[in-house]
Structure formats: C-alpha cells, structure tokens
Amino acid sequence: MTVALSTAQLIEKHRPTLDQALDAIRTRAYWSPHPEHPKAYGEGGSLAAHEGQAAFDALRGTRLDLGQPGTDGWTGDEVSPFGIELGVEYPHPDVDALLPAMRAGMPAWRDAGPEARAAVCLEILARISARTHEFAHAVMHTTGQAFMMAFQAGGPHAQDRGLEAVAYAFAEQTRTPGAADWSKPQGKRPPLELRKSFTAVPRGVSLLIGCNTFPTWNGYPGLFASLATGNPVLVKPHPRAVLPLALTVKIAREVLDEAGFDPNLVALAAERPEEGLAKTLATRDEIRIIDYTGSTVFGDWLEANARQAQVYTEKAGVNTVIVHSTDDYQGMLGNLAFSLSLYSGQMCTTPQNLLIPRDGITTDAGDKTYDEVVADLAAAVDSLLGDEARATALLGAIVNPQVGGRLDMAPELGEVALASRAVTHPDFPGATVRTPVIVKQDGARKQWDGTDADAPYLAECFGPVSFTVAVDSVEDAVALLRRTVRDRGAMTVGAYTTSDEVERLVEEACLEECAQLSLNLTGGVYVNQTAAFSDFHGSGGNPAANAALCDAAFVANRFRMVEVRRPA
Amino acid sequence: MTVALSTAQLIEKHRPTLDQALDAIRTRAYWSPHPEHPKAYGEGGSLAAHEGQAAFDALRGTRLDLGQPGTDGWTGDEVSPFGIELGVEYPHPDVDALLPAMRAGMPAWRDAGPEARAAVCLEILARISARTHEFAHAVMHTTGQAFMMAFQAGGPHAQDRGLEAVAYAFAEQTRTPGAADWSKPQGKRPPLELRKSFTAVPRGVSLLIGCNTFPTWNGYPGLFASLATGNPVLVKPHPRAVLPLALTVKIAREVLDEAGFDPNLVALAAERPEEGLAKTLATRDEIRIIDYTGSTVFGDWLEANARQAQVYTEKAGVNTVIVHSTDDYQGMLGNLAFSLSLYSGQMCTTPQNLLIPRDGITTDAGDKTYDEVVADLAAAVDSLLGDEARATALLGAIVNPQVGGRLDMAPELGEVALASRAVTHPDFPGATVRTPVIVKQDGARKQWDGTDADAPYLAECFGPVSFTVAVDSVEDAVALLRRTVRDRGAMTVGAYTTSDEVERLVEEACLEECAQLSLNLTGGVYVNQTAAFSDFHGSGGNPAANAALCDAAFVANRFRMVEVRRPA
C-alpha cells in the first residue's frame, strides 16, 4: 500500500471547509461549498457536462469491480425509469467473509482521530463533487428524477448533507478533549491527581440501507456520520438504485486506500433479485448502526428486530398544508402547484393533504370558495405543466410500477379535480411521465375523528396524488393536522394564513406534535425542499422518522467515549 | 399561584454556576460547587448536621403529602438496612389522572426556553444541596450506605451529576440558535430569503425508575436531563428507597410552583407492595423517555417493550481488574482492599474478578506467587476492616436479603481466601454488616473459553463477593477481560502493570470492547468512583449500560428541534 495522501495534507486542505461547515450549523445561515449550477463544473479537475455524460455512458454494460474481499459473484439489473437498461454488474457479498474484513481496519481508523477522519471524509466528498455530472446521470437513471433535479438534489445538495453530518460528527467527538489533567484538592493533604485520556471509539459496522428515490441525498448523512465517527460502513443500496451508491463506495475506497487506511472500511452489498439481503444483514451481530430510508413496514421491522444496533429510520408520513387565507393568491397557487409537481410528488416531503375550509378562504384576489380554490389550483398545475418540455423537466419519470398503480387507482377515491395525463418525454420515449392527480375529499369531522376513521387521506398515498380536503373550520383543519401527524407522521407541514391567531394555532400544533412548519411560501422556496446546514429534514419526533437530518442526536450515539485514567 | 421567583432572577443567580459547569465538561478538570465535607453546611440557609438529623427524624412516621393530583391512597413500608422502620407514607398515583395532569404544564415549560429551565433546575439542586444533611440520613436509611458515603455520594456527588446533566442539556439545546435569517443568492435575481425560528420541544413524560442502592446519584442525571429539556418527569422510586427521591420531588414541585410553572411537571409514583408499577407505566403512550438503573432482566425488558420511549438503562456488569505487576505493592493492595470493601461491594462499579497470572507477579516488594498475592490482598482487607468502627463506616449495611444470600452461598463456589464475618454496628444493632468474601477460581482457558463455559466468575455476583482468578498468562487475562465485557458488560475495568506492552494490550482491549479503564490506582482514587464533569460513568457501549453519565448522547434525543420558516 502506497500512502499517496498524508492525513496532515488532507487536514490542511479541508480544515477551512470543515470550519465553515461548523460555523454554518451554528448560525443556520445559508452556506454551501458545492455549486448548484451545472456550468460551474468542468474546471479544477471536475467533470464538465459532456465529460460526465461520457463517464456515465462508459459505465453502462460494465462490471464495477470494487476490489472487495468476500465477493461471491455478480449481480445487477437496473432499468432506468426513463426506459434504458443500465446493465452494470456489482459484486455480490459473501457476508461471512466481508464483514470480518471490514472490521480489520477499525483500530487504525479509530486511532487516526476525529480531525483526520473528517479530512478523509471531505476528500471523498470533494472527489464526488468533481464527478457531479456523472452522478447526475446515475441518479437520474435510477430514480427517475429529471436531469436538473438529479444534478442538484443528487449532487451538491446530497454532498451538503454529507458534509453537514461530518461537521456534526466532528463537533460531537471533540466536545471532550483528548486528554485532561485532574487535580482534586484534599485540604491540607496533597491533591488527588490523575491524567485522563479520552478516545472516541466506534460502535461497529454501520449498515446503510439505501432508497430508490434519493440514494445519495438520503444516504450520505448516515454514511458520513458513521464513517466520520470511526465506523466501517456497509452500503446496501435499493436494487433499483445501486449505481450512485456504488460509485460513492468506489470513490470512498480509493481515498481511504490512498490515505493509508483500509479501503474495506467502506464496502458495497448489492443484492440478488428477491434476496432480502437487508433483513439478513440487519440482525448480524457485527452490525451496530443502521440507517434506513423507506417503507414504514420495514422501518418498523428494523426498529423492533435489529436490537443489537442503533437504528435511524426515515419512513412514510402524510404531509399536510392548511390553506386558510393569503395576501398573495397567485403566489400561493404557483408555489403549491410546483410542490405537487416536482419529481411527480415522489418526495417524502411532498404535500399530500391540502386542508381548505368548506366555506372558502379570503385572499388578496377576493374571497374564494372551496371549489374555486381547488379549481384554481388545478389550473395552476395545468398551466405549470402545459409546456411538455417544462413538464418533463419538472416531473421526471414515475420511479416504479407501484407508484403508477396508485396514480391509476386515485380517481376511485373521490371526485377528480385534476386528472393525470401522460406526457411524452422528448428524449426518452420509454419513460413513464405523468402529471399529478388532485382528488377532492370530504373533511367533515366524522370522516377522520375516531379510531375507526379510514378516509383515504388518513394514509400515505406516495406519488403524484394529492387530496383537497374540505374541512368545516380552520380549527378542524388544525385538529385533523394533529391527528395525521400523531398517527401517521409528517416530514413537512405547510400553512397559508394572514391571521396571527391561526398562525399561532398551527405553530402550537407543530410544536406539540413535533413537525417542521413552513408558513406562507409564495416564492422560490418550496415546502418540500430543505437546505443543509440550516433546515432540519424531519423532526425525529413523529412517526415519519426517528431521526432528523442532521443534528447532534443523529451522530452522538454512533461512537462512545472511552476514558483511561492514570495517576499523574 | 403567586410567582415568588422570577426566572430572570433565577438566571442571574445561577448562570455563573451553569457557565462553570459548561466549562468543566469541556476541560474535564476537577470542579464541583457542592462541598463534600459535612462541616461545610450549616450556614447560608443550609442545614447543619444536627438540623439535618432533626429534619430526618421529623419525617419518620409521617405522610409526605406532595399535593399531587390523581392520588388514590397512600403507600410506603421502607425499613432501613440499619434496622429502623421509616414509616413514611407516600401518595399512590391514579395514573390515568396523574399523567394528563403532568402534561398540562408542558407548553409553558417549553416556551420558557433552555436558559430558564436550566436556572429552575439549578435552583432545585441548590435547595437539595442546602438540605444535604437531611438527604444523607434518607439515603443512608434506604440504601444501607454508611453515613459518610450516603452524605457524599447521595449528596454533593449526586447533585454534581444532576448539574452535569443540566449543563449538557443546555449546551445541546442552544447549539442551534433560536432564530436565523437565511439568504440564498440567486445570481442576478433577488436572493431567496427566509426567517427561521428553532424551538427545542419536549418528547413527553419522562419516567425515572429509581434503584435501591443509589437513588439520588443514579436518579438525578436522567431526572434533570429530562426536566431541563422540557419534559415532565414522573419518578417511580425503588420501593425500598423512596424517601430520597420523594424529598427531591417535593423540592422540585415547590421550586416550579414558586417560579410560576406547573408543579405537576415533576411527580412521584410510589408503588404498593408487589404492584409492579414500573412495568405498567413503562408502556403507557404518554411515557416517551425512561431512565432505569437495576437488573439486566428488567432493563432488557424495557428496551424490548417500551418501544414508544427513548430508554436509557444501566444494568448489571462484571467488573475486572487485571493484576500483572506493580511498583507499589502495598499501595495496590490497600487500594484494592478499599474498593472491595466500600459499601460492601454493592456498587455497580465494584471490581468482581481479579485476574492474576498463575505464575505470579513482579512487584517492588519482590516477585509474588498467585497464592501470595491473594493472601496479601485478604490480609489487606482484614487489616482495613480490623477496627469495628472503621469497618462499619466503610462497609455500611447489606442492602437487602438477596445480597446477603449471595454472600452466604459464595463459599460453595471455590476455595475461600477470605471469609466474610459479621460486624456489630455500634449504633444500629439491627443492621446486617458483613465483611467481603474472596473466593479463589481457576482461570484456565478451558474454564471460560467457549460458548458453554459457565465458570462462576463469568456472571455477576452483586455484593461483597469477589473472585481471584488464576490465569495462565497476561494474554489470557486480556482475552478473559474481553470475553467478560463483551458478554456481560462492565462499568469499570482496572489494571496494574509496569509493562508498557501489557498496558497497551489492556488499553486496546478496553477501546475495542468499550469499557472505562483505570490504571495503577494506588492512592486515594478508587476504580469504583467517578467524578462528575470529568469522568464518564459507564461507556454506553457494552452490555452493562446503553448510556454513559453524562454525555451529549444522554441528552440530545430527549428533545427535538422544531423549525418554523417564513418568508423574510
């Protein structure tokens, strides 16, 4: 092994970025070292647009050999939601060989200390950043996100979330000094004196169970939080979205190796069709941390069964927007139309239930009845997606047949305010592109109050399906919001109101039910988007997720502090 | 309700102490605001020795009315391990009435913010501190600790641990600012601007399940961590050790009330004999946090079944000391003899297994065979406890018949190196006072290596029973240490060695198995004692405990951060 990168050099290179990240998570001001604009890439070693495209094309139909120990064959059958087959093969793990190999490098990684680990993590992120254009295609063709979203959310925004996790991990590990002298006075006798050392030690192998829709954005926080706190990380991607995380693993292994650490500290566990590898891995004794994004059913299973591990889950939720009143009716409609359309509503943060008083709302454009609001929203969505090119650039593709199935069934749930229509993608005729459906619902209290209530809007309907729910009063809207968050969880809550009193009611509901609230968004910020270093993604305090991205609780229990005391 | 204490005044009064505590947990230097010496009390409103005695005497045979709602009768039958009946009666809760009442004050307590909550907690601690002499008797006569230990461990040291938890809680809650302005550049267009507010919100009612041996020391960290992060705290004491926590609850309720908060934010849940109230409470939906110290069986049950709550447990462990070599043989023997004798070995931190090479050890007093080391240690304990007054002052009383039973059975486990003897307490003839027993054990690898090994020293034998285990080599000692920590957990590990190589081996074992290590203690610091603000109690990374006292992980998940975003 040739140590091409000294950790001292890496620290010198990346410490300023780390310090800026530490400052940003403290001030929560806007900050990012990762450019959002595709044209910002192509210099300083980063791939330009055409180079990224070429790199992605070159990957297709190849075998991605990561040089991992414990490989017992190859697997992979990803098909892009845009219709092309990726044809990339990945190593399939012999878990009994791979897991012990991953543990071998732990002592040296631990002994490197928090600053060196942070610097290595930042080098990994920097190399990922340089290949953002390549990752954009990998994310696009596994998730169905349109190119610009795949570029931004799968690239700089995901890298931001990874860096944020590294910053939190560094801050937590360095709250206790590496060593301390302790001298306790004993009156006239000499003081008791001890020399103490404190070492952040890892818990064990960390398992990342990736999701289909945001493999990097949802994956990087856990991956980097665990690696930065000294744990090896085994990455088990969603079988439909392997490539972005496989590339991540490859880069991580290269950097670790060049920096003189065991590359097996990061490894990939790609699964065979129907193998259920996550379940097998999750209860292995070596696995001590699990990060998971996906269905509530499997998230609950992990929490109940992976008892040997710290389990961080993001599961399903039902996101609500209360529409009470506004002084910018067109801005509200445009903002909501965008939120419902972005990535075909396939975000864990997309609003599902729009609660609107049956008697209508007051706006700067005059009073509007419930029916008018629904019709105007439907028109706003229609107008936003009227241009086919803009529609495909916003909607992306339907990620999998389950989402398409729910979309097709939605009209059976109530009166359709806006029907979904198919859009032909100009570049990818094989893509399934669909506009969102909006379905009207009766939100009378008897429909949702009581343990046996089963209105469709009380459950998650993941995908481009939203419900405009006619409620009897804004108080009922808040009560329904509370019930939904408490029973089903929510990643986001939105509200539009010009009333201080209503604002107070909604805010109190969100504080008590523990949900993140966006008020009166009418411009270029959307309820379904959060910014690393400033916004928390989820609260970790309602059933949608048991952790927030990113806070101290997300990192503080991934390591433990071991103390050694000696007489001074 | 008359608000006698403004939170502004409380903040002004206590902020300097909070700042010192914040500084101490960062430097890990020695610090405490709570005097250890009994004579330090009696001025500035604190009770002097005779006043504390009188206050305790006045409590006996009374009904401690806390003014709690949801009281359905009275309970209490504590009998001191020193032989006297306390005769104090406590309210028995109607849980269906008490739990909702405890939630009523949550919004105002949340809105008070982290600094006001910390100040209120510090006022509670200050009033407890002023009554340290009274608490000392309450702790002594529920735990069996000798007076001086009950005074120090149950008084200032417990108060230190409570203050430490408040400091960690304050630090975690204030890492994110209360509000932030966020402005994201948009090239030539105007920036996106948001005003964000961040509020630390509580999880729900926190349940403290107290233990018999250290009701305040083990109870205060969880109690104050939860209260300082905005959660109501329901205190369910061990039925044999109610009084110290009942007094704590009474003081907390008084301070909350005077400061204008709902006193029901802290309440007592004393149980009827054989009621099993902890089990009932632990799975209630209102209970969102649980702190527990006690048996592994019930701790494991809580972790598996109280799924709606964050569960922090300190359970049983097997503590090991490796004796390899020393340059202060007498110091080592004296130090170990003290550790084995203090509170009759009834500390979760008391060493149980002393691993000694079969071929003997090297010391400044010449080479010593295994038998010589064991005989010299037995003699050291004998000498330490030879004087009856000193013996009772060190040993205290056997806390309950189960401990006495294990002590009586110990001679059946092997050759007795030091027999236990009964000591008559000069002041309390009804007390059960016993010196420790030391039993020799064969530590040949076949006795402990393998999944079916069942040597007595592989399980916890809580109380004044220790094993001198003859191992074949120091490498075997380290291997046995690893196995014991991994399978049974350990709150403490000790080692005596003059060899850098052996020190390195033991240190690596503790880093990998996640156990707190004390090396070569020969003076007035003992392996079973930890100091708040500097030492971690447990690691939270082995089976003895899933949390450490106190670190960020202990507090960071007791609250969640809720964000509200608005256009700027």
From TrEMBL, chains A, B:
InterPro entries: Ald_DH/histidinol_DH, Ald_DH_C, Ald_DH_N, Aldehyde_DH_dom, PaaN_2, Proline_metab_enzyme. Keywords: NAD, Oxidoreductase. Residues 94-484 form the Aldehyde dehydrogenase domain. NCBIfam families: PaaN_2. The keyword Oxidoreductase applies. The lineage of its organism: Bacteria, Bacillati, Actinomycetota, Actinomycetes, Kitasatosporales. It comes from the Bacteria. This is Phenylacetic acid degradation protein PaaN.
